[in-house]
Specification:
The chain has 251 residues and is α+β, with helices and mostly antiparallel strands. The protein is built from six helices and eight strands; from the N terminus they run H-H-H-E-E-E-H-E-E-H-E-H-E-E. It has two domains: 64 residues, Arc Repressor Mutant, subunit A; 153 residues, Chorismate lyase-like (Chorismate lyase).
Length: 251
């Protein structure tokens, strides 16, 4: 754990910007620079207020902004921590497969079917904020429960951000990718955004999922964002539409 440096921090307020908003940006920069690691507690509010020479209420407003953004997490009676990021963000919550209770009781086994380097498409380059000539790593992954295939995924990752994965043994990768991204590449997935639609499986996709060609499927398109707010993963997941479930609670 890094030591806390409580010497007075230079803090210049820009006219037209809220004082706590400017302070939130300064604290975010310290987190992005690695001063406080994911899962690590940050200094107490009183210590931060003293360090920046601001009122306690100002530092609390700044921290609240970072909590709303998912950069920080408050734990009652313990303090405020840098988010550890998303562990799984399981696609299984959208499906109900045989032998899986509510789609959450079992982590599917994963197998990388193929990987290749290619030039980013215009859409990918825009999403990742990279040049159209930049390279990406594309993966095809099959997820199974009890050795029965259930989800087929295409995953696109920008390079060189995920370069450390290139020379690794992909068949030995963890079933959950996000903790592995953090461990091997230092990329913390802070949030994901999923969009659902319906489609049909082509011949190859159907064969891999042991379904008939043109079988209806649910198409889940994901964007995953790191702690800096950058899109760092594009993922397309296909699963049997007859196993799809939707749950909504209105109060």
């Amino acid at each position: 754990m890094s030591s806390f440096n409580m010497k007075t921090t230079q803090f210049t307020h820009t006219p037209g910007q809220s004082r706590y908003g400017k302070l939130a940006l300064a604290l975010r920069d310290r987190i992005l620079q690695g001063e406080w690691a994911p899962g690590e507690i940050i200094p107490a509010e009183s210590a931060l207020a003293q360090s920046y020479g601001v009122a306690l209420g100002t530092i609390r407003q700044a921290l609240s902004l970072l909590v709303e953004d998912g950069v920080l997490q408050r734990r009652h009676g313990k303090g405020t921590f840098v988010t550890k990021g998303v562990d799984g963000a399981s696609m299984m919550r959208f499906f109900r497969f045989r032998g899986v209770d509510d789609g959450n009781s079992e982590t599917p086994q994963s197998r990388i079917l193929s990987s290749r380097f290619r030039t980013a498409t215009a859409q990918e380059a825009h999403a990742f904020g990279i040049a159209t000539s930049a390279q990406v790593l594309q993966l095809e992954r099959l997820r199974s429960i009890g050795n029965e295939p259930c989800l087929l995924e295409t995953i696109v990752l920008p390079l060189p951000l995920f370069g450390k994965l290139v020379d690794s043994d992909m068949q030995a990768w963890d079933d959950l990718l996000y903790p592995m991204f953090q461990k091997r590449c230092g990329v913390v997935i802070q949030k994901t955004q999923d969009s659902l639609s319906f489609s049909q499986l082509n011949v190859t996709q159907a064969k891999r999922l042991k379904l008939a060609a043109a079988h209806p499927c649910v198409l889940v398109e994901r964007q995953a964002f790191d702690i800096a707010g950058r899109c760092v993963e594009l993922r397309t997941t296909r699963g049997d539409a007859f196993s799809f479930k939707y749950t909504a609670q209105l109060q």
